[in-house]
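During the no-cost extension, the postdoctoral fellow (Dr. R.K.) reprocessed legacy sequence entries with the updated structure-token encoder. One reprocessed record is reproduced below for audit purposes.
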Amino acid sequence: MELELEDDEDIRRIARTNRVVAVVGLSPDEARPSWGVARYLQSQGFRVIPVNPGHAGKVILGETVYASLSDIPRDAGVQMVDVFRRSEAVPAIVDEALAVLPDLATIWLQLGVRHDQAAARAEARGVTVIQDRCPKIEFPRHL
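Re-encoded structure tokens follow.
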């Protein structure tokens, strides 16, 4: 229960302060959860930057898609990385985010996605990590 209360405090802070979100694995398919979450975030005033190598250079939800976090301009101000990939992909995503995103404050792993070792690496660098949760579910309670 204590961890959940701690997560709630973190989620409240994230929802109110992180305004630029890179969504790794964002699909152009409106039926996919990643699209619905990204659209919700936009509706709440967040800037969503799509990351999907299969759609790089295209546009999803009015934003240019990047192949990787490394391809996002450093001055984009990405504060949060929302991960729609399998747990096995998380370590490489976390390492890349830590290396190339100067404003990174949060790594958010979607429902069903966890990687405790990668989370510990990010937390050791001062980055808040939320695992196995969804901002579309969590943020309405805190905005």
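The chain has one domain: 2-141. The chain has a mean pLDDT of 95. The remaining legacy entries will be reprocessed before the final report is submitted.
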